[in-house]
From TrEMBL:
Pathway: Purine metabolism; AMP biosynthesis via salvage pathway; AMP from adenine: step 1/1
Name of the protein this chain belongs to: Adenine phosphoribosyltransferase
Recorded catalytic activity of this chain's protein: AMP + diphosphate = 5-phospho-alpha-D-ribose 1-diphosphate + adenine
InterPro entries: Ade_phspho_trans, PRTase-like, PRTase_dom, UPRTase/APRTase
EC number assigned by the record: 2.4.2.7
Assembly and interaction partners: Homodimer.
Main localization (coarse): cytoplasm
Pfam families listed in its UniProt record: Pribosyltran
Keyword terms: Cytoplasm, Glycosyltransferase, Purine salvage, Transferase
Record's keyword annotation contains Cytoplasm: yes
Compartment list: Cytoplasm
Gene3D superfamilies: 3.40.50.2020
Highest taxon of the lineage: Bacteria
Length: 185
């Protein structure tokens, strides 16, 4: 599911495309302009908050993926009046953790979560800035489920459907909500 067209168009205008970064042929979707303008940042956060204020969708905690998922996830958690937990790259959390390794285009990566970050049965919204191949979000989902939490939805600002991540996540049973679809752009 995606946001209403007016919000989508407004946000799209504030996402910068950086050609050939970090490698030739890549069209990098840079969300930092969304964060720099307080009015645009408010529209961005409100789009998520209004969705998750609905009782049927309201999480008990928001989990943000390292690192841009921390920026938007913590603000959304604050606005909803719920807790926030970070899912970090390996070696960044100081307490006992669970780990999940996933494949990247070239190699692999590992993310971690504190073992006391969520409780069994807790309803969790999993958030990141962008869904490309879906590996990071899938790893986050698996970590939360290892601890017994229920991931109610995965959310992101941007989805790049041609990379197949959104489809893989949906096939794995994760509902998705995104604001800007860059299909064919």
């Amino acid at each position: 599911m995606t946001a209403p067209l007016a919000i989508t168009d407004y946000l799209r205008q504030h996402i910068r495309t950086v050609p050939d970064w970090p490698a030739p042929g890549v069209q990098f979707r840079d969300i930092t302009p969304l964060l720099q303008d307080p009015r645009v940042f408010r529209v961005l956060i409100d789009a998520f908050v209004h969705r998750y204020m609905e009782p049927a969708r309201r999480p008990e905690v928001v989990a943000g993926l390292d690192a841009r998922g921390f920026i938007i996830g913590s603000v959304i958690a604050y606005e909803l009046g719920v807790g926030f937990v970070p899912i970090r790259k390996k070696g960044k959390l100081p307490y006992t953790t669970v780990q999940e390794t996933f494949e990247l285009e070239y190699g692999s990566a590992t993310v971690e979560l504190h073992t006391d970050a969520v409780t069994p049965g807790q309803r969790v919204l999993l958030i990141d800035d962008l869904i490309a191949t879906g590996g990071t979000m899938m790893a986050g989902k698996k970590l939360l489920e290892k601890l017994g939490a229920t991931v109610t939805e995965g959310a992101a600002i941007v989805v790049l459907p041609e990379l197949g991540g959104a489809q893989r996540l949906r096939e794995a049973g994760l509902e998705l909500f995104t604001l800007v679809d860059f299909a064919g752009h």
